[in-house]
Design goal:
There is one protein chain. With 378 residues, this protein is α/β, with parallel strands linked by helices. The protein contains 14 helices and 15 strands. The chain folds into 2 domains: 139 residues, Enolase-like, N-terminal domain (Enolase-like, domain 1, 2-Layer Sandwich); 230 residues, Alpha-Beta Barrel (TIM Barrel). Helices cover 35% and strands 21% of the residues. The two termini are 17 Å apart. It binds 2-succinylbenzoate and magnesium ion. 2-succinylbenzoate binds next to loops.
């Protein structure tokens, strides 16, 4: 195929999948458990001209945040998703998600390939991914997500470090037994910071009195307090508390966002590329939210540099008006798989790169060294 044709359509000739293992600098604990080492699936898609794009799967090491995890993502990608994308000519990367509609769910698996296609397409067009997506800002605002620690003192110390580094918002994980007292303590130490809590679905509607007590601590928002697949009970809760509810797990599509907004289940939405199935669906969620004046922000899934670069690009869309969970590579990794690593200014911002595609160089020798399995679908 000629160069000109390849710019008009998207046609993937080869898909390389890898699993890499990457130990975290510090364990990350949520209401569903502790992670010390990531098992990350990466995709490299190539077209007939040898142009390539990279995507990262955000599935975790077990089916806890989502029903997807590393092994199901791998198997579903190899057996079903990669063959659906391979050698299927589509108008553009925006149409790749639709190639996989016959597979139900598995949005993280789908996003792995879909985001890689966007990177490739932007590189072929010679433009940075953020511009290709329709982004409107060249700098993004950053917050951090701080996991459950071994002691309240350890948490305070971690928060102090991140506040001193300049991060614009602190999110702490909460769960029953690590909630009211912890938030009270944090507020005492840091009366003025932008603070929020993420429960990862650890509570029930019968906990409304607890959330009413949390109201006094002026949290920016309370993320996913109730069931991962609920939007009804969240609406009942939101009516009884002042703190804005932010949905994470419950929003897997633009339709979900539309329903949650109509039900008034939340006042803020966290968008994650993997959870919704890639850039095209993330753009749809952002559009629905923006049309309804619901602010959104970019969530994180302990991504390596490739997923992080995609998150940075997505965060430039107009509706991303709140600081996201997109922070510096060094908070997670001894050495990232991209160059340069993601760094954050002392004002808590990331400068969006202007090189074509994701805008960071993929460190192939490092990826090679970390790879524990590899499969090429041709
Ligand atoms: O709920 O936002 C979440 C990490 C893994 C799974 C779920 C979540 C998170 C985070 C970490 O909060 C965000 C990050 O720093 O990448
Ligand atoms: Mg969350």
């Amino acid at each position: 195929m000629s160069r000109r044709e390849s710019l008009l359509t998207l046609l993937i000739q080869s898909i390389e999948l890898r699993e890499i293992r990457l130990p975290l600098v510090h364990f990350f604990e949520t209401s569903f458990g502790r992670t010390t080492e990531r098992r990350i699936v990466l995709a490299r898609v190539t077209d007939a001209n040898g142009a390539e794009g990279w995507g990262e799967c955000t599935a975790g090491e077990g089916p806890f945040y989502s029903n997807e995890w590393t092994e199901t993502a791998w198997a579903t990608l190899v057996e079903f998703l990669a063959p659906m994308v391979l050698r299927k000519e589509v108008e553009s990367a925006a149409h790749v998600f639709k190639l996989m509609t016959s597979v139900r769910g598995h949005r993280m698996g789908k996003a792995t390939l879909e985001t890689a296609c966007w990177d490739l397409e932007a590189k072929n067009a010679g433009v940075p991914l953020w511009k290709h997506l329709g982004g409107t800002r060249s700098e993004i605002a950053c917050g951090v997500s701080i996991g459950i620690q071994d002691s309240p003192d350890a948490l305070i110390e971690k928060i102090r470090k991140e506040v001193d580094a300049g991060y614009q918002r602190i999110k702490i994980k909460i769960k029953p037994g690590w909630d009211l007292k912890i938030v009270e303590r944090v507020r005492k130490e840091f009366p003025d910071i932008r603070l929020m809590g993420d429960a990862n679905s650890a509570y029930k509607l019968s906990d409304v009195p607890l959330f009413q007590q949390l109201d006094q601590f002026n949290l920016m928002m309370l993320e996913q307090p109730l069931a991962h697949d609920d939007i009804f009970d969240h609406a009942v809760l939101q009516r009884q508390i002042q703190t804005p509810v932010c949905l994470d797990e419950s929003i897997c599509s633009a339709e979900d966002a539309c329903h949650a907004i109509q039900l008034e289940s939340c006042r803020i939405i966290n968008i994650k590329l993997g959870r919704v199935g890639g850039h095209a669906e993330a753009k749809r969620v952002e559009q629905v939210a923006r049309d309804n004046e619901i602010p959104v922000w970019c969530g994180g899934m302990l991504e390596s540099g490739i997923g992080r670069a995609h998150n940075i690009a997505m965060s430039t869309l107009a509706g991303f008006t709140l600081p996201g969970d997109v922070s510096a590579s060094a908070r997670y990794w001894e050495e990232d798989i991209i160059e340069p690593p993601v760094t954050v200014s002392e004002r808590g911002t990331i400068r969006v790169p202007d090189a074509p595609g994701i805008g960071f160089n993929v460190n192939l020798p490092r990826i090679e060294a970390l790879t524990i399995r590899k499969e090429t679908i041709k």
